[in-house]
What we know:
heterodimer; A: 304 residues; mainly alpha; ABC transporter involved in vitamin B12 uptake, BtuC; 2 strands; 3% strand; globular; B: 248 residues; alpha/beta; Rossmann fold; six-stranded mixed β-sheet; four-stranded antiparallel β-sheet; 9 helices; disordered C terminus; transmembrane (chain A); membrane (chain A)
Amino acid sequence: MILIVEQLLNGLQYGVMLFLLAAGLTLIFGIMGVINLAHGSLFMVGAYAGTYVAGVTGSFWLGLPAALLAAGMTGFVVEAVVIRRLYARDHLDQVLATFALILIANQGIVLVFGRQPVFTPLPEIFSGSVEVLPGLPYPIYRLFIIAVGLLVAVGLYLLINRTRVGMLVRAGATNRDMVRALGVDIRGLYTLVFGLGALLAGLAGYMIGPISSVQVGMGEQILLATFVVVVVGGVGSIKGAFVAGIGLGVVDTLLRAFLPGVLRGVMPPSDADAIGLGVASMGIYLLMALVLLVRPRGLFAAGA
Amino acid sequence: MSVLRVTHLVKRFGGLVATDDVSLTVEAGEIHALIGPNGAGKSTLINQLCGELAPDGGRVELGGRDVTRASVPARVALGLGRTFQVTSLLEEATCRENIAMAVQARAGLNFRIWDRIAGRQGIWDQADATLAGTGLVARVDVRAQDLSHGERKQLELLVALARKPRVLLLDEPMAGLGHVESAQMIAQLRDIPLPMLLVEHDMAAVFALATRISVLVYGRIIASGSVEDIRENPEVRAAYLGAEDALC
């Protein structure tokens, strides 16, 4: 029981990460129609910039604005220089161009920081654990990540559903042509959305630093799962990104933790471990296939 | 002064001249209908007027201002409103919300974009005012996707009107409408005191509404004139109207 709760929390923490990345990606994909493979690079840029500043100053909290600023600025420049030329192009061009951005970002990071993973110092208050249940200590820092993710979710919900700019963003995700025909300067909206997505990616990248290493290629590892979240949640839907992010995060974590053990009951241990881990790592893709069978446009697709 | 003036507009796609030296105007108080067979270049022309497509030559003026190179939002800001051939709405939003979107677009992306919508009663009041007295007044809280095809066409027109345009470009507003719905749409269009450029296949609607008709064939305007002129123009009959019964 305690083990299950612990893995649920781990899944929640992973899900929150996926949500932070998928929220930006789903808006960029849904509103701008751009497949941005380089979203993971923004995640990496945020992680490196924040971790570097935290390392130099010795302060975790100074790393945070650095991560946001670096990812936001990178997003801003990338949108203005590259992405803006891709809106009218087809998806193959977008994939090629943003894939090139991944290679450039990865090599750029290697040139500046080298290939060695870097680590973020954790402030004192995050170093311990709290007992979330009797007999279950859980690292404070992971709880902090979950809390930040949920706060961002609430903030995004209010922004998207309660403000005028949110109304335009929702309308833009549903029907771009109509919004343009009503005279909204959609380019301004695009820059805003891309910048917001970059900020969230940078935030996620910096926060993941202390619990997994900050290294070249970290963005691509999580990007694939993020795209699955976007597709399952429904392109353009923040709510979908939230539900699918948390859901897939939990499912993935639970499968990896428990499937080998379950299979050991019915087959030899070595086979159970191999098959269990294999199936567990396929889990979210199988789930995606199932969801798409029932709801081909994802759980909460924006637009019809 | 013409509300909309197009002079010597040219658009080529490779060897194909899709818009071939087209000149036309929309004057205050008139409904100028643009007719032509499929593939005549009507959509290409509309897209150049809206700013979706840049012409290779010629000039587009809105209210006397040159907008040939202007963006879509810039043209809308100068009073251009449009509807689409395929109805374009926020499907999951209600009628009221669709209208509110247009009202709010008129306010623009200014520094107050972070305001709460709920606090801006004006937006909803204006949306209700736009819907009052229309056939949709009993359907304000129905989602666009749940409306009938005729109601959707009607809503799209109201959305365009809520933006308070000075001239309307209507891309086949009768498409897919039945007899009764067409009659309602004709009545609705007749009540709108705005100059319009009406692209339409439904000849009954064109003859009922238009004050002037231009005929586009292979990217060129082959005839332009009053309803009677066009009905009796032999060149138009040969090129487009064809059989006698197409006229009724």
